[in-house]
Specification:
Layout: H1 12-21, E1 37-43, H2 48-64, E2 68-74, H3 80-88, E3 96-99, H4 102-106, H5 118-121, E4 136-137, E5 140-141, E6 144-156, H6 157-162, H7 172-184, E7 188-190, H8 198-211, H9 214-223, H10 229-242, H11 263-268, E8 272-278, H12 281-286, H13 294-297, E9 298-301, E10 316-325, H14 330-341, H15 343-351, E11 356-357, H16 369-380, E12 384-386, H17 388-391, H18 394-408, H19 414-428
Parallel strand pairs: 1-2, 1-3, 7-8, 10-12
Antiparallel strand pairs: 3-10, 4-5, 6-8, 6-9, 6-10, 6-11
InterPro entries: Bact_solute-bd_prot1, SBP
Signal peptide: 1-19
Organism: Amycolatopsis albispora
Amino acid sequence: MRRFRNVCAFLLTAVTAVALTACGGGGDTAENADGPVTFTWWHNGTTDTRKAVWEQIAADYQAANPGVSFKIEPVQNEQFQTKIPLALQSDSPPDIYQQWGGGNGKGQLPSGKVADITEQTSPWIGSLGPIAQDWADGGKQYGVPYVGHTVGFWYRKDIFANAGITTPPATMEQLNEAVAKLKAAGVAPIAIGGKDRWPDAFYWGYLATRHCAPEELKKAVETVRMEHPCWLRAGQDLKAFLDTQPFQPGFVGTPAQQGAGSSAGLVANGQAAMELQGDWDPDTMSALTSDKDLNSKLGWFPFPAVAGGEGAPGAVLAGGDGFSCTKRAGAACAKFLQYLTSTPVQEKLAAVGAGLPVNPAAAQALTTDSLKSVFEYTQQAPHRQTYFDIALPTSVGQALNDAIANFFAGQGTPETIVQAVNSAAAGNK
């Protein structure tokens, strides 16, 4: 799946200071934060580097909070979709588990095992901004994000300059003109990892966000119905864009992030000019090339405006990574999640490229001007649209992604994308 990178180990001193000041709270239906507790913690950091990061965090927190210990179980990201529902039906679910919020998270609430941590988080959750609402439902908080992500175009400034493109495209018309210039210069205009399917959804999702007013976006997610004409217009614009053949040859079989031949690798090694991806892309690219100056060659621009669109100008397609707690130690878990969002820890996350900090005070630790631009653009955006496959119920979001991927592969129509959502929603009731 998407949005996950390797990060380096944290320094002990800063995070220990934070742990000493992390706030607890009274229990709701969960155990109180006071007293000894051993957390069972499921996260998706399965690489050696990611495992080391979370182990260090746990060790630092444990050192500063006597009586707290951790039993950590890394889980492959793709396995969460099946493991978590089964765990929530059991008598021993993990105390802390990776969670991406939205409709996925709401679908877990009927289990009765997810802790309501509203009381513990209410004094500070508002400082994280609108992203925290992805882990809330009905005015109650059921999880906390620790990093945010925003999608936009990452591009090679040197390749743009060689093709005579002096300004990043601001409209779809300008993007089409850039594609033509890049083709004439003999380079693939846009790389995409069609083999993994989820990168395709970014295009339809952004076109929908540009065409649909924020009120319609919210309504469609809440009702799980797409009836307004703006949804169809998104597919029609997507077809027109695909007809320009903007991607590398064989894009349907190209992976997104695995190896130098992936879409990220093509941009990193100068074989393609740009890629529509999240803020994690530069970090992903750097591992796929020997070019030590790559970061200085990369720029970022937001998804272009569309003609006649009713969406809020500057709206972003975004998501985040977070954790939820189960009830056995919910209050103590909430205390730990606050620790993850405090400034020193967030600065370390930002400095190693884990994502955009959910704590704005840590933004100064972002390491490149491009990432700082992404953060600032996100902060100023008039609307933040969560990835549709996350915002919608899991089965509906998957049906949408499948329909979009099939459309990229030449199957289906703009109408079938909308129909896939509405049909899946009807079957989900």
